[in-house]
Amino acid sequence: MTNLHTAGLVLLTVAASLCMAPAGSSADDFADQRQKMVAWQIGARGISDASVLKAMATVPRHRFVPEDMEHLAYRDSPLPIGHGQTISQPYIVALMSQLLAVQPGQRVLEIGTGSGYQAAVLAEMGVLVFTIEIVPELGRQAVGVLDALGYDNVRVKIGDGYKGWPEHAPFDAIIVTCAPTRIPKPLTEQLAEGGRMVIPSGEKYDQQLFLLTKQKGKIKQEKIVDVRFVPMVDERGKTY
Ligand code: SAH
């Protein structure tokens, strides 16, 4: 009986904390859709990291999609964000964020800023985010949205993320949201000892999501799930 009671209290606490969000992001027209997204698409599929669930219940995803697509922002799918690019499906954002297993205060490198949504989710989890986007217009737009929402723990750079961001290395975690055919060496080199990297890799339409961990300088690689990401390209548009 006592146990049941405690479990009930814990559930209530989680529910309450999921509903609490900083001013400006909770009191919007989409709060209800956002809670349902977290419960049905993410929690129900086994994502259990409380900081991921809380961040995704807080970040206003509709602010990161084109205005005429706001009403689709909480759907169980990726969405186009212009320039042939997409914002990832909410579940994939949650899965990748959970795999990173970050602690507040850590430093995370993201390759492929896109809309800035994934960066905002990580920022909400309390890490310092360094994110690189190769399409200048997308990078600038992401800066605008992240600034407007007050995420001052995200640094955005326009450029080719294949080379990483050596000035700020090493990183406790690296997340790549575009797919190279092979894992970029500069990125594994910029991963801290004990660090984790989540990266899709493979040929077009035949990619896997990998979790890489660095232990005593050696990289261990684990296949997680089949995925489909846009390719990682160089400044001339050629796929890596
Ligand atoms: N994380 C994003 C989704 C990004 S889609 C979000 O939350 O919205 C993948 C992004 O990777 C695209 O914006 C694409 O332009 C970018 N990209 C592709 N190759 C890149 C490279 N070499 N360096 C940096 N960004 C790259």
Principal-axis shape: globular
* Main sheet strand line-up: 5-4-3-6-7-8-9
Uncertain stretches of 5 or more adjacent residues:
1-17, 19-25
Number of strands: 9
On the 0 to 100 scale, the average pLDDT is: 91
- How many domains make up the 3D coordinates? 1
CATH superfamily descriptor: Vaccinia Virus protein VP39
Helical percent range?
Answer: 25-40%
Number of H/I helices: 7
Structural commentary:
It is globular and about 45 Å long. By secondary structure, it is of the alpha/beta class. The protein starts with a helix and ends in a 13-residue tail after the last strand. The longest helix has 18 residues, at 2-19. It has helices spanning 2-19, 31-42, 50-58, 90-100, 117-124, 136-148, 185-189; strands at 79-82, 85-87, 107-111, 128-133, 154-158, 171-176, 191-203, 206-215, 218-227. It is built from seven helices and nine strands. The strands form two sheets. A seven-stranded mixed beta sheet has the order 5-4-3-6-7-8-9. A two-stranded antiparallel ribbon has the order 1-2. Bound molecules: S-adenosyl-L-homocysteine. Residues 85-88, 111-112, 114-115, 117-118, 132-135, 138, 160-162, 177-178, 230, 232-233 line the site of S-adenosyl-L-homocysteine. S-adenosyl-L-homocysteine binds at residues 85-88, 111-112, 114-115, 117-118, 132-135, 138, 160-162, 177-178, 230, 232-233.
